[in-house]
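To the team - iron/sulfur cluster complex, inputs and output below.
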Amino acid sequence: MKEETPQEGPALEPKRGLAEEIMAEHGEDVYRCYQCLKCSAGCPMTFAMDYPPSQVMRMIQLGQEEDLLASKTIWVCVTCNTCSIRCPNDIDIALVIDSLRQKALRKGRHPAKENVALFHKYFLDNVKKRGRTFEGELLARYQLKTGQAFENAGLGLRMFLKGRLGVLPESVSNKKAFREIYRRVEERGGKK
Ligand code: SF4
Ligand code: SF4
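Output:
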């Protein structure tokens, strides 16, 4: 009896375009990521993400752009920078995720999670005002608009317990210089 040989499917080739694009536009080399998972271990938002930040890095290396642009992660990330600070390879992960979010917006993609685009807008307004986030105001504004006060109470408490929810607003010392930087970044479409 003739033995059947298993059918071989096409080899999965990583698509390199997305990583190169991020490198060219933002100067971040995601190929330096070796999956130590420190970013994901410190991220306060993984409970609401479909892919933690370390997996986002891997997916970029593999060129899984469509999955990333359709993900919840890019909208749920609050750009707290914890991941970027923890990365031993000095990858600005928060910036990389923001670049995916900006790309999704440019392509007219809607957030996978309801109201996340609104949260994203309020976050940017919040930073623009003082040069720093004042999470209390941000969450209050968002909750008033969406009526999700009770739904988000758990998130607020988790952020507070992790030391990421300020009680009083703080501003950068040189607001004028910050506004000028912000204006230039806006002019350049958020690129470095
Ligand atoms: S910047 Fe985003 S991905 Fe990084 S730790 Fe903060 S919420 Fe998580
Ligand atoms: S901390 Fe840096 S090297 Fe480690 S998994 Fe995250 S991105 Fe990769």
